[in-house]
Amino acid sequence: MTEILKNEKAEKSEKKFKSEKSEKSQKSQRSQKKDGSEKKEENKFIIPDSMKSPNIPNENLSPFESDTDFIFLMQKLKQIISNKDMDWTKHLAVVNYLRRLFKYEKSIFNQILYGLKIYPKIIELINSIRSVLAKNTLILINEIFSENVPEFDEKKNKAPVIILIKAIIPTLITKANCNKSFIKSEAKLCLESLTNNMRYGDTLISLIQSMNSKKNQEIDLSYNLAIKLINNLNKEYFGENNFFNELIKAISIIYELKKDIYVKKIIVIIKKIIEKMTQNEFNSKLEKCPKKERELIKKALDPKNKKPIMKNSASSDFQIFLKESKDKIKNKPIKMRNSSTASTTSIFVKNKTEISGKKK
Q1: Using the 8-state DSSP alphabet, how is residue 233 labeled?
Q2: What count of other Cβ atoms lies within 10 Å of the Cβ of residue 268?
Q3: What's the rounded Cα separation, in Å, for the pair 332 and 346?
Q4: Is the dihedral of CA 329, 332, 335, 336 positive or negative?
Q5: H/E run at residue 344
Q6: How far apart are CA 227 and CA 230, in angstroms?
Q7: Of 34, 96, 114, 43, residue with least CA distance to 72
Q8: Of 94, 197, 283, 304, which sits with the fewest C-beta atoms within 10 Å of its C-beta?
């Protein structure tokens, strides 16, 4: 009896051991499969060397294969561009992929740039210490801005590219005034394409806002681009209440800075806007604006109520210094060493004629 019990116990323990062994084996197989699939997934995205090439001409950008997994591609591109420590050539590859997407797959491009919100990362690349990467990013931006926008349509105010325009204009203005000539020229090309093709109300508002700069060159460039865009914009834009109110608000903020360089330019901008409308239309819409903004615009246009223009104190102080220096020089005693007697003689200089006469 005891022997039978022992045998049954041994059988049970053997079954339990086999069951545990089998379970471990299955777990191991599942783990290996998982690791294998992850490695396979990881190795699936291999960036070809051709995509790491700089300055690829637009006509050489190739379309995607018919079986391209765009969801996977978008995730990988976002992963690479979000990693600041990634090799810069991989960031360059992302730029080239985006150029291909913009050319052949616009809906996918919009999803990754605006849906996945990688556009701030793209703007960061313009400031990269790698000039090649910065230049190629500007080439991408220029291609985006080179797309012709149709005539006035209320729906186009919601175009995804407006998100990029609002965010990138200050960076482009800065780069268009930088020291590196090839970056400067690419940034200027972007701004030229912007004013020629991105004829949105928000583009004009962003350009006026970018006038709020400490650098005169940047103020001048923003102003000139704003004037050009006013001429290019369809006049129907200025009839839109929301756009007109936002425009007046942006103008008022710059005008209120009270500096000479701002005041004169803002008055010209306002007059240009009136040219796109009738005076009555402008006045009618202005009356619907907030009181503070309305009064500022009226003061800007009324010569009797001009805001006092604050002169550049540093510049005027320097002019005063120069004048005082010149006055001192005219009446300053000049000490000269007499070589024979080793004594010092003072000559009181009154003017150039007297000096020349004494020399004779």
Answers
A1: S
A2: 13
A3: 10
A4: positive
A5: strand 344-348
A6: 5
A7: 43
A8: 304
Residue type, 12: K
Rounded CA gap, 190 and 148, in Å?
13
Q: How far is 165 from 35, CA to CA, in rounded Å?
A: 43
C-alpha to C-alpha distance for 221 and 224, rounded to whole angstroms = 5
pLDDT in tens, the chain (360 residues): 555 545 555 565 655 555 665 665 655 555 554 444 444 444 467 888 888 899 999 999 999 999 999 999 999 999 999 998 889 999 999 999 999 999 999 999 999 998 889 999 999 999 999 999 999 999 999 999 998 765 555 555 567 889 999 999 999 999 999 999 999 999 999 999 999 999 889 999 999 999 999 999 999 999 999 999 999 998 888 988 899 999 999 999 999 987 888 889 999 999 999 999 999 999 999 999 999 999 999 999 887 655 444 444 344 444 554 555 555 555 545 444 444 444 444 433 444 444 445 444
The CA distance from 179 to 184, in Å, is 7
- Bridge partners (DSSP) of residue 259 are 310
Amino acid at 114: Y
Cα torsion 74, 75, 81, 86: sign: negative
Where b means 16+ CB within 10 Å and e means fewer, 120-157 reads ebbbebbebeeeebbbbbbbbbbbbbbeebeebeeeee
Structure tokens at 157: 């105010």
What are 334's strand-pairing partners? 347
Does residue 165 contact residue 202 with C-beta atoms inside 8 Å? yes
DSSP per-residue codes, 98-154:
HHHHHHH-HHHHHIIIIITT-HHHHHHHHT-S-HHHHHHHHHHHHHHHTSPPPSP-G
299, 307 contact by CB (below 8 A): yes
For residues 246 and 12, give the distance between their C-alpha atoms in angstroms, rounded to a whole number: 82
Residues 233 and 199 sit within 8 Å (Cβ to Cβ):
yes
**312-318, Cβ contacts within 8 angstroms, sequence gap of 24 or more:** 312/259, 312/260
